[in-house]
Amino acid sequence: MSRLERRCRRLLRAYPQAYRAGRGEEILGTLLDAAPGDRNWPPARDARSLITGGLRVRAARNRQLSLAANLRLAALLAAALWLGDSVAAYLDFAIHPGNYYQLPALSSALFAACALGSCLAIASAWLWRRSVTVSLALAVTAASALACSQAPYLGDLLSDVRLIGPPLALAALAAGKDRPPRSWLWMPAAFLIASLPALFANAFGQFVPYIFPLFPVVFFGTLGIALLWLVTDARPAIAFGLYVEVLYVLASLAITRFSDALTAGQGVIIALLAAVLAGAALRIRPRATT
Description:
By secondary structure, this protein is mainly alpha-helical. The protein folds into two domains: 3-62; 67-281, no CATH class. The protein has helices at 3-12, 17-34, 44-62, 67-95, 105-127, 130-149, 157-173, 186-195, 201-204, 207-211, 214-229, 235-253, 257-264, 266-281.
């Protein structure tokens, strides 16, 4: 295989795998026939055409579903992000019950089960049957509701919705027919992992989160990727916007330190969400595959 052919094959990866399997050799043959024999790189115009053509095909395939189906998948990803972010809260209640007015043993055990069940429910939304996903998410919902009922001081709006809302939302949205693309699964996994260093805050006096500020890095990194992803798929950007919007509304309704921190950047958050969601919505309308 020549260097030219090898590099053309790399450029062909801009197209989806299924498309390459059907038409990749035809496109490659056309490129090689048109290029002079002494070249090691395809002409810049051909390389640009390959990349833009591949991105157009990917974008068209991501818009094949109906608008309602695409919005449901975006909301499902938002619920998975929310649930992944909530696993650290479940574990915190389970590992440090003494920090919450001596959380009852039953509540502590239930929150530990919620953390495990949440991880399984998120994975199931992508990998397993819908019935398994719904069952796991509903089980987490019931366990978190029971745990909160055993600890009345957790019964404020933010606590209840933050602990019970994520699995309930996932259960409702996972019941649909279409499954989210596996290329999205890294997002809730990253949010889950990034929130875990906060568990060590109680033991080390807030030391670990400052040394390893994973969540801000993951948060803004995911935002940047979602914005770049708008070129071919607007749904992750919509999901990210919905996730931030839910957290912002909940924090605004509750009198907490978190809400005070958000108030200072309220205008920035609203402007960012408006731009992301409006731009993404324009790209989610279904179109035929080219």
